[in-house]
Amino acid sequence: MAIEPSLLDACTTHLKTCLKNIHKVIQKANEILCSISQPSVCSEVLLSPRGGDYISGVVEVYRLSKRMEGGMRTQNIDCERLRLILRDIELSWNNLQAFLSISPSLLQTLPSSSVLDYAAQGAFSDSRPCLQSCCGVCLLDRPVEEHPSEVNTSMLNIEGRSYHPSCANFWLHCVDPALPVLACHSSCSSCVKLKKDEL
After folding, report:
1. Which of the 8 DSSP states describes residue 1?
2. Whole-number Å distance between alpha carbons of 92 and 87
3. Residues 6+ away with beta carbon under 8 Å from 168
4. Is the torsion defined by CA of 67, 72, 78, 82 positive or negative?
5. Contacts 24+ apart (CB under 8 A), 176-179
6. Residue 159, exposed/middle/buried by CB under 10 A (0-12, 13-18, 19+)?
7. What is the Cα–Cα distance from 63 to 14, expressed in whole angstroms?
8. Angle at CA of residue 169, ends 163 and 173, nearest 5°
9. Whose CA is closest to 163, among 196, 131, 118?
């Protein structure tokens, strides 16, 4: 089922804004590490508590980009502009991993590509999940593993909308001080049922 043009535009703008900010964060990490000329100093920085915390934060930001990619697939959003930004994020991430290879112990802590493959979990189909129940940032319709020790972290419910905690955190700190609210598609059976129940 094709997504309505007005909703597609709103979703595309929303995703593009967030993905561009994700790219900026990962690109900034590359610039910081690239500015350290000595590999030994770079390794020392990466292995310090502050360096480790910083890289963990960047990993979470990259994880959000993969979640958004899965959300796009689940919502049947296929847009060349978004694919180009996702490609740029992947290039920046691969470059960052090259820096992290200086410290094998740190490289081993990074999540595997299969853990980050939210796109494989979504599937193009005739129906899309209700945007009211999806995360308002990444558009995935289910809880996700935020950290290896926390499986199926529950979603936050803010003013009747759902958000993964890390998605909401990134949006509020790096995109906009107001969380995004997207209208659902007109053929959503959940929204239609909800309206009938309210009558």
Report:
1. -
2. 9
3. 136, 137, 156, 158, 179
4. negative
5. 176/17, 179/136, 179/137
6. exposed
7. 17
8. 135
9. 131
CA trace torsion 50, 53, 57, 60 (10° rounding): 160
Residue 183 phi, psi dihedral angles, 5° rounding: -70, 150
Residue 199 tokens, joined: 């009558």
Handedness of CA 68, 69, 75, 80 (dihedral sign): positive
Alpha helices (H) in the chain, listed in sequence order: 5-34, 39-47, 49-74, 80-100, 104-107, 118-121, 165-170, 189-198
Per-residue pLDDT of the chain (199 residues; tens, 9 = 90+): 456 667 778 889 999 999 999 999 999 999 998 888 787 888 888 888 898 899 889 999 999 999 999 989 888 888 899 999 999 999 999 999 888 887 777 777 777 776 777 755 544 444 566 777 789 999 887 666 544 444 445 788 888 888 999 999 999 999 999 999 887 766 666 665 554 544 4
Amino acid at 187: S
| pTM (2 d.p.) | 0.82
